[in-house]
Write a structure and sequence with these properties.
Layout (H helix, E strand, L loop, with lengths): L7 H14 L3 H13 L5 H41 L4 H16 L3 E8 L4 E8 L4 H4 L2 E2 L4 H9 L3 E3 L12 H10 L3 E9 L6 E10 L7 H63 L4 H12 L2 E6 L4 E5 L5 H8 L2 H18 L3 E3 L2 E8 L2 E9 L6 H41 L5 H10 L8 E7 L5 H11 L6 E5 L2 E7 L5 H16 L4 E8 L2 H20 L6 E3 L5 H6 L5 H19 L3 H10 L4 H8 L3 H15 L6 H18 L1
Parallel strand pairs: 15-16
Antiparallel strand pairs: 1-2, 1-6, 2-3, 4-5, 5-6, 7-8, 7-11, 9-10, 10-11, 12-14, 12-15, 13-14
């Protein structure tokens, strides 16, 4: 029984249905086979076979159109990514991922040059599994990627491992082997038109099996590489723009800061200058500087002693500095001021800023700022300018003081030579010059070597800054008259000796007397101070200060009051008090010891006690009076005091 052949039209309809369904080429080819088996022959079979070939061509064209559409979509999406560029790494990862997807490769990657290292490195990878490959670096001309970068042309290899067109190196081959790559396509990232542009990297697609890359695949990868180059260049331009904007903002901030600093400096200069012109004093300048710099300020003279202090912004540091005061603190400030003079700028020492106050190269003093360790450029310059205003003020004060002291010096000369001629006139002259002779005063007489006598007079003027005293040269010495502030004359003399010695640059011996009020009393105090000064020089105490009351029995002999009781109390006081409280006889024992020429045997007979008792009493006397009680000088004072005590009890 024979079968009727299937009509040709059915086979042709089947081909159209398969094309519409997007069936694979195998299914299309099977239609002609089915037609032959179904009895088609001759012209009918030929028509089916020709229709099948046409269907295969149509399928190929449709596949190419779909791939081209996908490529165009990918390029369009990439362009969109570039238009909305925010993160360069994200855009590059997207390009590499699309290259791998469109070419259907196992992996894709992108390399960029490292200008500092002089080679190229892996910037982005997709589909890579080897850490060694991901960290691979290539020199120019090495491997396929190096040749792409060197020639600015695309290169493809169906089997890189056996391809001798490229310079193989151990590190590159090891990375490629570890990743398992075989076929590699690389294209350059070019900036500029054509193949003559600048190579800024390379884009690669690679398979782990042998493969020949078609020209349209090379062209597609080149298009993606162009987009990557645009992304990199755009990102660099944006980074440069951001950097430029940041630099402009920084420059603008610097200009504004400089302008503000200039304005502030101008205002502060006007303020300080106006303060000086209005007759402001050193404390006023210190207060103004403290307010301008928001810190605590002190002004010291050339020997480091304070002239003014303003502690309104905490004050802990300046108070701690004052508490540590004395000669050591003054010496530290003088040293810092000398460093400032040498550097011609303020210096930071011991947690404070110190700026020398100069007249030419002469150190008038220093300006000290506390509480501002972070003093920046504009504020530091303001601080340094303040020292110039301070020096102007100190020079004005010195000039005024020197003029006043010349006038006052005439008064002092008349006061010391003829105090009884016109006492009321002397007092009136003093009041016109700004000091009241009827008020208690401490009188100091200072003397130094002949070579430094001129410097001593200038030092005395500086010493009196802010004190309200007066000084004059008289009788080869410098006389200083100070308002009495409760300080004992001996203490005042010692303080003056230290400061005047520093200012004059030579040892200065100072004697003090007072307090004294009225022309006659002041003249007597001067005479007493002169006697004390001569005694200090005879005793070899050059550079020291004292009063007659501190010279022991010499004070009794030299002083105007001849205070014998005070001398006895000062010398024998510990023994007298001990005997009174315990009923002992230490004073009698000491007198017997001296009367017997220091003989213990004769002393014990005089006292009618055992020699050990005498020794014990003398040990107690030593404990009360000190180890030097039996030295010649101290023994003389003790014997004189014992004689005066004996006379007072008769």
């Amino acid at each position: 029984m024979s079968h009727k052949p299937i009509p040709v039209t059915r086979h042709l309809r089947r081909l159209l249905e398969l094309l519409a369904a997007g069936a694979p080429a195998e299914d299309l080819g099977a239609v002609a086979v089915d037609a032959r088996r179904g009895g088609a022959a001759g012209q009918d079979l030929a028509e089916v076979e020709q229709a099948t070939e046409a269907a295969l061509r149509v399928q190929t064209a449709l596949r190419q159109h779909r791939r081209r559409e996908a490529e165009l979509t990918a390029l369009f999406d990439t362009a969109g990514d570039l238009a909305a560029l925010r993160d360069l790494d994200a855009v590059l990862r997207s390009i590499v991922r699309r290259a791998r997807m469109l070419l259907g490769t196992d992996t894709a990657y992108l390399t960029l040059p490292d200008e500092e290292a002089g080679d190229t490195y892996m910037r982005v990878t997709d589909g890579s599994v080897s850490e060694l490959f991901q960290n691979l670096r290539l020199q120019l001309g090495e491997g396929l990627g190096g040749l792409v970068a060197e020639t600015a042309r695309p290169y493809a290899s169906p089997d890189y491992r056996t391809d001798d067109r490229f310079r193989h190196t151990g590190s590159i081959d090891a990375g490629v082997l570890d990743e398992g790559l075989v076929a590699i396509l690389g294209v350059p990232l070019l900036l500029g038109p054509g193949s003559g542009g600048q190579v800024i990297g390379a884009l690669f697609a690679a398979d782990r099996t042998p493969r020949t890359f078609a020209p349209d695949e090379v062209a597609l990868l080149c298009s993606l590489a162009d987009h990557a180059a645009i992304a990199i260049d755009t990102a660099k331009a944006m980074a440069d723009a951001r950097t430029a904007l940041a630099e402009l903002a920084e420059a603008n901030a610097v200009i504004q800061e400089h302008s503000a600093a200039m304005q502030r400096a101008e205002e502060s200069h006007d303020r300080l200058t106006d303060l000086v012109l209005r007759g402001g004093d050193v404390p006023d300048v210190a207060a103004a500087v403290a307010a301008l710099l928001k810190g605590d300020v002190a002004v010291h003279d050339g020997s480091g002693w304070p002239l003014a202090t303003v502690a309104e912004h905490g004050g802990a540091a300046v108070r701690a500095s004052e508490d540590s005061g004395g000669a050591a603190e003054a010496a530290a400030l003088v040293s810092a001021a000398q460093n400032s003079r040498a550097a011609a700028h303020a210096v930071f020492r011991d947690g404070r800023w110190v700026c020398a106050v100069l007249a030419g190269q002469e150190l008038l003093g220093c300006l000290v700022l506390y509480g501002r360790p972070d003093l920046d450029g504009p504020d530091r310059r303001l601080f340094e300018r303040s020292s110039v205003v301070t020096s102007l003020l100190l020079l004005l004060r010195r000039s005024v003081a020197e003029t006043e002291n010349r006038v006052r010096g005439d008064l002092i000369t008349d006061l010391l030579t003829t105090p009884d001629r016109d006492p009321a006139g002397l007092v009136a002259r003093g009041r016109r010059l700004g000091f009241d002779l009827d008020r208690p005063h401490t009188l100091l007489v200072a003397r130094t070597a002949d070579t430094a006598r001129g410097r001593l007079a200038d030092a005395a003027v500086q010493y009196l800054f802010g004190c309200g005293g007066v000084t004059a040269e008289h009788g080869g010495a410098v006389v200083v008259l100070l308002p009495y502030d409760g300080t004992r004359p001996g203490e005042a003399a010692r303080g003056a000796a230290g400061q005047l010695g520093q200012l004059a640059g030579a040892p200065v011996t100072v004697a003090g007397a007072g307090p004294a009020a009225g022309p006659r009393a002041i003249a007597d105090a001067h005479a007493e101070a002169l006697r004390c000064l001569r005694a200090l020089q005879v005793l070899g105490r050059t550079g020291h200060g004292a009063s007659v009351a501190e010279l022991g029995f010499l004070g009794v002999l030299l002083g105007d009051n001849h205070d014998a009781d005070g001398f006895v109390t000062t010398t024998l006081g510990p023994l007298l008090e001990y005997d009174a409280q315990r009923g002992t006889q230490l004073v009698r024992t000491l007198r017997a010891y001296f009367d017997c020429g220091g003989s213990l045997t004769r002393a014990k007979e005089e006292l009618h006690v055992h020699v050990n008792t005498v020794v014990q009493r003398l040990d107690r006397i030593q404990a009360l009076l000190g180890d030097d009680w039996n030295t010649p000088g101290k023994a003389l004072e003790l014997q004189l005091a014992l004689r005066l005590h004996l006379l007072s009890t008769v």
